[in-house]
Description:
Blueprint: E1 4-8, H1 14-23, E2 27-31, H2 36-45, E3 48-50, H3 53-56, E4 62-65, H4 70-80, E5 89-92, H5 100-109, E6 114-117, E7 120-121, H6 124-129, E8 132-136, H7 140-150, E9 154-159, H8 165-192
Parallel strand pairs: 1-2, 1-4, 2-3, 4-5, 5-6, 8-9
Antiparallel strand pairs: 7-8
Helix pairs in contact: 1-2, 4-5
Amino acid sequence: MKKNIAFIGAGYMGYGIAKNLILNEFNLKVIAHKNREPIERLVGKGAKEVNNYDILLDNIDCLFICVTNTPIALNIIKKIISKIDEGVLVIDITTHNKDGSLIMKSILDKKNIKYLECPVMGGPVQAAEGILGGIVGASEKDYELSKIYLNAFCSNHFYFGPVGMGAKTKLVCNFLSLGTTTFVIETIKAIEK
Length: 193
């Protein structure tokens, strides 16, 4: 039986993830937003566009949230928590601040909604090609449940432990990347002198 997925944030990064979910034969619903181009492309590939959260969250197995930051993700989850059925798996692609995913989990725990954080390695090109790397924080049980979805857009996904560890690992990776880039630039400048 096909799984039913709701997707919030099918824009810059989310488009490629959503596209690969469709290509892997999931039933996908996306919510309308101001950036029409990715939504129209997803609808052209078989997604169903809806214009409110009641329809988006009706009869789903999994909800994807792929937004820019923690404040946006928290604002959305607070608006929709009453509409999400118990037992739904929420896969959060948002790159959170150090406590964002823990706050998300505490909100969802109140309704026995499963939660998995999965910030990703790669960009829009890798998302479209389905070769992202996933940095997962979740219970082991929820991680096992998520693999059917993660395999659709990640060439690799790595389990780092409970919720909170995915966000922390992603932030450390970001700092390492920035540090390495800065070191290379400063080395080149020193060589030029």
